[in-house]
Amino acid sequence: MKVTIAEKCGFCKGVNVAIELARKTLSKGKKVYSLGPIIHNADVVTELLKAGLVTVSSVDEVASGTVLIRSHGATLEQFRQIEEKGLEIVDATCVLVKRVQKLCHTLSAEGYKIVIIGDETHPEVKAIVGFGEDVVVIGSKKDLCRLGEHGKLGVISQTTQSPGHFAEMVGEIIKRGFSELKVVNTLCREAIRRQDSAVKLCKEVDIMFVLGGLHSANTRKLAELCKKHNNQTFHLQNWHELDKTVLRGRSCAGVTAGASTPEWVINDFVEKLRAY
User: pTM score > 0.90 for this model?
Assistant: First the structure.
């Protein structure tokens, strides 16, 4: 089978930095706790677990040692809790997520009601919410009722949202006639490049595979966009999840991967697919 890999896919800079920080901290022999999975990829989390990284869901679970702030970030309250307990902090928050957190804090201090375009259940969004006073998350048109009658809105976005969705939601908000609207584009350019690359490729192949964690927002977005243009799109974590029957009658396949998918997972999948 002919297999083509998307021009842009796999680890992004933010994920690389987080993993390297984790490995560097672990190499010092310290007891290290990650506040939530360091990235949304089970293979990487398992690898780091074997190296000694313990994943916890709350600061209350850590009595001593080092707390690693994952790439998705943490709330101001969580930072305060860590400092109050005298724990060491290693901050692996993606620099782009840091920027959104600071914007949320600044706009909130300026009297804006903060509107985040994104998924309210995602850890990145939860962390951003914790940097503002009056914050609402809008995932789709049905959530617009949450805006209320506030006159000043500061609109930002989860970094991995698509430009199309962000623009659509901003357009819907504008229709509601608020007295002042400040919109800041906080989308990740690297994520946009990956989305464009994936969509371009999926139009050229019989079947499209999107590799990455099922809980990874940017990977799910890739799969969602590809599915719109090629209904033979499959979101898998790795080769073991592939149902081989979907390959029948297919001669060319496309492969892309989320920002938290390691290169070895991509290479293993492509190698076995080509040999199938």
Answer: no
